[in-house]
C-alpha cells in the first residue's frame, strides 16, 4: 500500500506538535512494507521541520500535486510560467488581495501585508531565510501556486476569481483565505502521479486528511480517511472517519485497516 498524509490538522496540530502514536504508526507501516508520503498544500519551501521530516517518509507531494519527491530526489516539478505569475500578482493586488507566492526553495510576501496576522507571523517565523520579498525579487520568483488573504467585499473577490479562472482552480477556505492552484493540479492528482511513477494501482492507496483542500485526495485514494472532530465536514467524500488528531486518529485508523 501507498499511504498519503496531509500535514496541518492531520500529522500535527497548530503548535506543530506530533504525537508519539502518529510517529510510531508511520514508522511501523513502513516496516510493514507500506510506502508513506506527505501530501500537502504547503510549498516545499515550507516543509522543512526537522521533527516532521525526521519521522521518515518515502517521499513528499507538495504544493497541491505540483511537486513530487521520491527517495530524496525531485521527480516532478511544475513551475508557474513567469508571465502567468506576474499577471497574477498584478491582478490580485488590483482587487486588494495580499498574496503569498509559494515555491520549492523560497516563498515570497511583503512583510507589511502580514505583520500582526496570526498565520503571517507563523509563516515569517518558521520560514526565516527561505522567505523573500515579492517586490525585491520582482519577476524572478520560482513558484508553483499562490495563496492570498482576501478580506475584501465579495463582489471584488468574485471579480478577481473570474479574471484568473483560466489559470487557476480556487480552494476557498473562507471569505479571508484562498489558495490558487494551477488548473489540473490538486492533491488527488499528486496521488495519481505518484502511482504512475511507482507503477502502483491507485486502488492500493490510503489518504489521511482533515480539511476541504484534502477533498480531492480523499476521493482519489483507494481509501480516504478523514480526521475526526475537524472544522470541515468530511463525511461526503471520506470513506472512513477516524478519531481526532489529539486522540491518535492516524494510529487508530491504521489499526482499523490492519496496516500496522
Description:
The protein has 260 residues and is an alpha/beta fold. It has nine helices and 14 strands. Helix 2 (50-53) links the parallel strand 2 and strand 3 (59-62).
> Strands across the major sheet, in which order?
5-4-3-2-1-12-13-14
CATH class division of the largest domain:
Alpha Beta
Relative helix content: 25-40%
Low-confidence residue ranges:
none
User: What would you say the CATH architecture of the largest domain is?
Assistant: 3-Layer(aba) Sandwich
Beta strand count? 14
Classify the oligomer.
Answer: single chain
What is the H-and-E element order? EHEHEEEHEEHHEEHEEHEHEEH
Average pLDDT score: 96
Class by SSE composition: alpha/beta
Sheet having the most strands: 8 strands, mixed
**CATH homology superfamily name of the largest domain:** HAD superfamily/HAD-like
Task: Give the key terms.
260 residues; Hypothetical Protein, Haloacid Dehalogenase-like Hydrolase, Chain: A, domain 2; globular; alpha/beta; Rossmann fold; eight-stranded mixed β-sheet
Show the helix and strand layout.
Blueprint: E1 2-5, H1 20-31, E2 35-39, H2 50-53, E3 59-62, E4 67-70, E5 73-77, H3 82-94, E6 98-102, E7 107-108, H4 111-114, H5 118-127, E8 131-132, E9 145-149, H6 154-163, E10 168-174, E11 177-182, H7 187-198, E12 205-209, H8 215-220, E13 223-226, E14 240-241, H9 249-256
Parallel strand pairs: 1-2, 1-12, 2-3, 7-8, 12-13, 13-14
Antiparallel strand pairs: 3-4, 4-5, 6-7, 6-9, 9-11, 10-11
